[in-house]
């Protein structure tokens, strides 16, 4: 609010009109809902006392919730939108990993085995059970 100049309209976040209209809308909805359903049918007279009470409660509760949400608003730090995180770039990525189809006929680097590892086929060495694999 320190950036506001006299005579200029407020922006949406600091304006009071939005939360008041939001609260008034729900108060009207609560008023008509209670007016219709609290009477218990068309043979009885409408309960305006309960309808006004429900409208007042709905107005106050939604206004308090909107005020708490607007007070808890905080801008993100400027470095968060710079693309410095993981996978924030829209550049073309390789197709390996995450279920993509890699190049056919080759193994991924993470799944290659050492030639001297036990159980490697074609080396003639014995596997973990003592026999040739």
Task: Describe it.
- The chain is mainly α and 133 residues long.
- It is 34% helix and 0% strand.
- The protein is built from two helices and no strands.
- Helix 1 runs antiparallel to helix 2.
- The longest helix is centred in the middle third of the chain and has 24 residues, at 48-71.
- The radius of gyration is 34 Å and the shape is elongated.
- The model has no long low-confidence stretch (mean pLDDT 75).
Give the overall silhouette.
Answer: elongated
- Class inferred from helices and paired strands: mainly alpha
Please indicate the percent range of residues in DSSP E strands (runs of 2 or more).
under 5%
* Helix fraction by DSSP (H/I, runs of at least 4): 25-40%
**Ends apart, CA distance between termini:** 76 Å
The major sheet is characterized as: none
State mean pLDDT (0 to 100 scale): 75
Q: Work out the helix count.
A: 2
Rounded radius of gyration (Å) = 34 Å
β-strand number: 0
Q: What pattern of helices and strands is seen along the backbone? A: HH
Name the poorly predicted regions. none
Brief sketch in words of this structure:
The protein has helices at 17-37, 48-71. It is an all-alpha fold and 133 residues long.
Write the layout of secondary structure elements.
Blueprint: H1 17-37, H2 48-71
From the structure above, extract its key features.
elongated; 133 residues
